[in-house]
Amino acid sequence: MTVGLDVAIACGKAVFVILLVLQVMALGVFFERKVSAVIQDRIGANRASIFGFAGLGIVNTLVADPVKFLLKEDVTPAGADRFLHFMAPIMAVVPAVAAFAVIPFGDVLEVGGRTIELQAARLNVGVLYVLAMTALGVYGVVIAGWASNNRWSLLGGIRGSAQMISYEIAMGLALIGVVLTYGTLDLQAMVRQQGALVWGWLPAWGIFYQPLAFVLLLVAGVAESKRIPFDLPESESELVSGYFTEYSGAKHLMFMMTDFVEVVLVAALVTTFFFGGWQVPFLGREGFEIGGRLYAPPAAWLVVPLLQVTSFMLKVVFFTWFQIVVRWTLPRFRYDQLMRLGWQGLLPLGLVNVMATAAVILVWGGPA
Amino acid sequence: MNAVVFFVLAALTVAAALVVVTNRNPVYSALALVSTLALISCFFVFLEAYMVWALQLVVYAGAIVVLFLFVIMLLNVQSEERVMPGVGVVAMVAGGAGLLAILVAYGATRAPLAAFPAVPAGYGSPEHVARRLFTDFLVPFEITSLLLLVAIVGAVVLGKRQA
């Protein structure tokens, strides 16, 4: 019986995480529409009529868009490799969603004598797992480009693989600085450490210890999600749609979904490493602790985790919004600029950050 | 339960490895290689060696085979012609398989597997691996790093040379 309950709890957490990701992703699509409209001084999509009903404006569009994709004809080009053409969208979307398994969205929920970690899978190598999943995401892009038997697609796929490999290194180096600071590879343990206070009032968030790593991770993360200013794999003004030019219908939707899930993933990683994850400043397991006094909310066992999940969500939504503003503000890099930024900009900065962090910890000791 | 999963995984791994060598299309071979490596990493999960599991995925599946694929696509390698293997190849395969069978049969007569000593707590964790790597195995580790550096310098020199 208890084994069955444990399995049920694990499944429940996995479903919760996936739903959480999809919700933030939907908000991301909403931002994409509305932020782009505001930046370009337009009103934005508001004309979709569902059975004659267009009263909700942009919400109608958000509902109509995926339905349209799902109902469109799914074309496989004549010269394509049918099997790999079918597999590529799956290879793209699965690692992107799977990476969320180790991201903690709350502390613990204590219910009925059980302590449930609010994290789908607690791994002692969580950081490596995230790196592995982002690395596996390359295959979807490369295979889509190759299997389409289209020159635009192939160029997009090759650009994508070179770009993602280059920026993975910067991402890894940024994360080494973070790991040195917290002294663990476990994401939940990292977030717990960020609940401490510096000088009694400043939350010990990673951004105060690792500001350079934050910038590096954000830039490398945006490059990994292949969005403007790093959207050379798709660059619609040169390559039509790059690696997914030859995709239509639901498969095209899956590639777009992958992009948005990766945006949310970058937001979640930045939140977890640098902005205290689910931490609410001054909120402990019992309630708010301000100036040595405890302000416990009623039903703290439920209210505290709810506040934490809300805090995590708000931070993730903020960084999702931020990335979309960046996407609609900056122009695209040229390919040589992209490579120079990755190898001659982010990589040396990442090395400097690792050496400086290690030196500081050696002389003064870590924060923990 | 564990034995069933193990043998299913082992069969899948061998099947994927066979696809690597038998498929005529180099892209399929590379993808089968990724599958083989990913399946091997599953065995590390069984051994509760999560560190090795993650490293296997990051390094082999995430980086090395991506570079293979990149080169295959950049050079536009075409499908290979299938040729009948010569007598020598058949003899080598048969000899290798026979030798393997003899070794397995010999191994089966040895002491049972239960005789392994218990694994100490924290064995194979990132802390443990790092401590061993930077104390007991520091010199081999540094030499390997130097070797990689030499390889990188060599690659840059070759890349800069005018064709």
Give short descriptive properties of this protein.
heterodimer; A: about 375 residues; mainly alpha; two-stranded antiparallel ribbon; 12 helices; 6 strands; about 5% strand; B: about 160 residues; Four Helix Bundle (Hemerythrin (Met), subunit A); 2 domains; about 75% helix; about 0% strand
Describe this protein's structure:
The complex is a heterodimer of chains A (368) and B (163). Chain A has 368 residues and is mainly α. Chain A has one domain (2-40, 72-364). Chain A is 65% helix and 5% strand. Chain A has helices at residues 2-39, 58-71, 82-98, 126-147, 151-182, 187-193, 206-209, 211-224, 236-239, 249-274, 300-329, 335-364; strands at 108-111, 114-117, 197-198, 202-203, 288-290, 293-295. In chain A, the strands form three sheets. Chain A has a two-stranded antiparallel ribbon. The relative contact order of chain A is 0.14. The mean pLDDT of chain A is 83. With 163 residues, chain B is an all-alpha fold. Chain B has two domains: 1-80, NADH-ubiquinone/plastoquinone oxidoreductase chain 6, subunit NuoJ (Four Helix Bundle (Hemerythrin (Met), subunit A), Up-down Bundle), CATH 1.20.120.1200; 121-163. Chain B has helices at 2-22, 26-46, 50-75, 87-109, 126-134, 138-160. In chain B, α1 runs antiparallel to α2 (26-46) and α2 (26-46) runs antiparallel to α3. Chain A binds chain B through residues 81, 84, 123-125, 128-129, 131-132, 134-136, 138-139, 142-143, 145-146, 154, 157-158, 161-162, 164-165, 168, 185, and chain B through 27-28, 31, 34, 50-51, 53-55, 57-58, 61-63, 66-67, 69-70, 73-74, 125-126.
Q: Name the structural class of chain A.
A: mainly alpha
Estimate the mean pLDDT confidence of chain A.
Answer: 83
Question: Largest sheet of chain B, described in full?
Answer: none
Q: Tell me the radius of gyration of chain A.
A: 22 Å
CATH architectural designation of the largest domain in chain B: Up-down Bundle
The amount of helix of chain A comes to 55-70%
Q: Most extensive chain contact?
A: A-B, 27 and 22 residues
Any low-confidence stretches of chain B, pLDDT <50, length ≥5? none
Low-confidence stretches of chain A: none
Which fold name fills CATH's third level, the topology of the largest domain in chain B? Four Helix Bundle (Hemerythrin (Met), subunit A)
Strands ordered across the widest β-sheet of chain A: 1-2
| CATH homology superfamily of the largest domain in chain B | NADH-ubiquinone/plastoquinone oxidoreductase chain 6, subunit NuoJ
Order of helices and strands of chain B: HHHHHH
* Count of individual beta strands of chain B: 0
Q: What pattern of helices and strands is seen along the backbone of chain A? A: HHHEEHHHEEHHHHEEHH
**Envelope shape of chain A:** globular
Number of individual domains of chain A: 1
